[in-house]
Amino acid sequence: METTNIILCGLGGQGVLFMTRILAETAMHRGQKVVGAETHGMAQRGGSVISHLRLGEAEGSLIRSGTAHYLLALDEHEAYRYLPFLAKGGKLYVNVEPGMFPRPEVGAHIKSNKIVYRCVAATKIALDLGAPMSTNLALLGYFAGFDDGPFSGREIRQTVERVSPERFREMNLKVFDSSLETGERT
Amino acid sequence: MMKKQILLGNEAIALGLLEGGCQILTSYPGTPSSEILPGAVKLIKSEGLNTYTEWSTNEKVALDNAFAAAIAGKRAACCMKQVGLNVAADSLMSAAYLGTVGALVIISCDDPGPHSSQTEQDSRLMARLAKVPVLDPSTAEEARLMAKFALDLSEEYKVPVVLRPAIRVCHARQDITWEKLHSNDTSASFEKDPTHWAATPRFRYLLHKELNKKLQEMSRRFDTLKQFNFHNLQEGKSYNLGIIAGGVPYAVVRDILAEEDRDDIAVLKIGTPYPFPERLAQEFVNACEKILVLEETDTVIEYFLRDRQKVLGRLSGHVPQEGELVPDVIYEIIDKTFKERGMEPLSDQMDRSAMELVGSLDLPVRRPTLCPGCPHRASFFSIKKAKPKAIFTSDIGCYTLGLNLGGVDTCLDMGAAITMASGFYHAFAQDGIEQPVVATIGDSTFYHSGTAGLLNAVYNGSRFVLVILDNEITAMTGMQPTPGLGVRADGSKGRQIALEQVVRGCGVDFVEVVDPYDIKAMTNVVKKAAQYVAEPEGGIAVIIARHPCVIAYRSEAIPEPKRITITEDCVECNLCIEKFECPALYRDEELGRTAVNPVLCTGCGVCIEVCPKGAIVEA
């Protein structure tokens, strides 16, 4: 059973759900089956937010520990919190100043599990462009820049363009493109 | 024309209801059910349907309304969270006996975990108690199919049907393909038959008998309902172990066994746990030496299996009695059971070291907190300031988070802020003690269950301060309108019913409205109210703390945002961080004092009044 498992996490209000939606829509657009799980209600009030996204033949919406292929974290602490979801050789994209990750205690785990981690100061990119609420798009753009996900960076960009509300579209793309370049250069 | 969309499980349920020709849809919001009605409203508008929708004032009201439509020959449904069904239980139990003419589907969304509820109760047991059929979907797509099927089943057997999706179905997302929807034009007609529709106990006995007959017939029907109840038994083969699973756990079991290529395991999926498909289950049990039962949240299937010697589940200690059966938990249960049965274990022998490592990292605990700029925070701060020694009874909503601020001592159920306040009053008054009590309740919760308790408290001479935290919306569940707002489920204008009017109507003489953003005014009015409560001629004092929710109405809530800064007068008393707990305020290690996070700060400026040193100022 071929399934791609993606965990997206962050804090309430950072836009984890929108980021999940972009990836889910991208998958559907290319004809893949999609199932996912979201956090609503009490947990959204500033709490830790996680969403699960599964592309392929899965029926259950939750991802089992040690089986996620990708982990996208909008917050450094949340990246650590959900690290056990990553499979051996999984890829971690995290919003943190490059060079500041991982904490020494975690280094051995990341190494022995062959986890590939990539860091970007997504909040700073968004702030510098005057869009403090767009950290999610900065991380997504960076992820797209590597072009090593289940879909190409171009496909993700097309979804951002298609599903962004009219009044945010231009800014969303600006933030996305800026960090996409950062990703490509890395 | 076919449409393909990624839908939330609750939107898929709404789709299924409308595909099934649902004409009347009522609901009271509550996680994880809240998105069903808005999902339907969206489809009704885009597809030009004539379905009537309403946010009812509570779940019992929602069920009664839908029931009336169903006995007038319509297809009706009502949706709620599982504890909402407790509120509607009186209606459900009776409706089961009376039956329907058209269709009545009750959607009760469960919350194993729990993630956003007071209990982990299992709505399937409520359906069993009421003696109505219950459907238990495993995925969003199946929930959609079951919603339509439930309407058909209800109309066919003239019996209310419960659909029980759990949170992982409600808040799952899945790609769903659907076709154009059509309105159901069945017209209303009501044939008077008081011996039936207003049946007295003598007739109720006969109705009960009739219901039992229907249940037997449905159980037979479910034996062969292959769409929702199916297994992979091979003719003549016997199995060391069989798994019977329902709801979300079935989807997880299915994925695990598919990933592991384990076709040596017999699996029976049960989508209709009640009335139980007895024959189908017996056939399955006969082919297996032992049966592992995986279901959420309680034991239903497990109780219905007659051959007790074979069953492994909650009663045998194989499955935890509480908490959600997430994939990790199910994986471990299956693996352990395989080993116990001398079978080949699962391939992935789980490595717990990553979890232990994370546990040792001392990560910040992210407890849910009131939003920056939330008017409730200001209310709690003033209440605590004015009456620090009071007992604070509270209620269900965002403001339950006032417990972080020491402003919430109790939270029982909807409306209990008021009923418990009067209970506390009498308990202490009996001993001659004047124990101050300040109750807090949200606007929507007050409309839901506040008035009966308030009438009772006034009538029976209780004394306490009641603060209605009026943010003009049902915020916690995702911004549904209230009667106070006068906007209806479809966005049209409804009759606005002011809280002041309702409170005075309950016999309360002290009613004051205040803006909680004004800490001084709010503190003074709480003191004044407490004085009134203590006067010989006093009674219950009601304060309506009215300020719009910052999430629902940002620009109305904070028309002129202030740029907040903290001066060197800050002495790091941490009062603003600990007692006011605004997420936008934090201790800046470099500066060595409190600082403002400009991304989170809404500029409400309430903190300016909170700082005892006057160190929080407008820049």
Oligomeric description of these chains: heterodimer
Structural class of chain B: alpha/beta
What proportion of the residues of chain B form beta strands (DSSP E)?
A: 15-25%
How would you describe the shape of chain A?
globular
| CATH superfamily grouping of chain A | Pyruvate-ferredoxin oxidoreductase, PFOR, domain III
- Helix vs. strand class of chain A: alpha/beta
Segments of chain B where pLDDT lies below 50 for 5+ residues?
Answer: none
The CATH superfamily of the largest domain in chain B is known as Thiamin diphosphate (ThDP)-binding fold, Pyr/PP domains
Low-confidence stretches of chain A: none
Q: Mean pLDDT across all residues of chain B, rounded?
A: 96
Rg of chain A, rounded, reads 15 Å
Briefly summarize what is shown:
The complex is a heterodimer of chains A (about 190) and B (about 625). With about 190 residues, chain A is an alpha/beta fold.
Topology:
The complex is a heterodimer of chains A (186) and B (619).
Chain A: E1 3-11, H1 16-29, E2 34-37, E3 48-56, E4 68-73, H2 76-81, E5 86-95, H3 104-112, E6 116-120, H4 122-128, H5 135-146, H6 153-163, H7 166-185
Chain B: E1 3-8, H1 9-19, E2 24-27, H2 36-47, E3 52-55, H3 59-71, E4 75-81, H4 82-87, H5 89-98, E5 103-109, H6 123-130, E6 134-135, H7 140-157, E7 161-163, H8 167-170, E8 172-178, H9 194-197, H10 201-223, E9 229-231, E10 239-245, H11 247-259, E11 266-270, H12 278-286, E12 288-294, H13 301-304, E13 311-312, H14 327-340, H15 353-359, H16 375-386, E14 391-394, E15 410-411, H17 416-429, E16 437-442, H18 443-459, E17 465-470, H19 499-505, E18 510-514, H20 519-534, E19 541-546, H21 554-557, E20 564-566, H22 575-578, E21 585-588, E22 593-596, H23 606-610, E23 616-618
Parallel strand pairs in B: 2-3, 2-4, 4-5, 5-7, 6-7, 10-11, 10-12, 12-13, 14-15, 14-16, 16-17, 17-19, 18-19
Antiparallel strand pairs in B: 1-8, 9-11, 20-23, 21-22
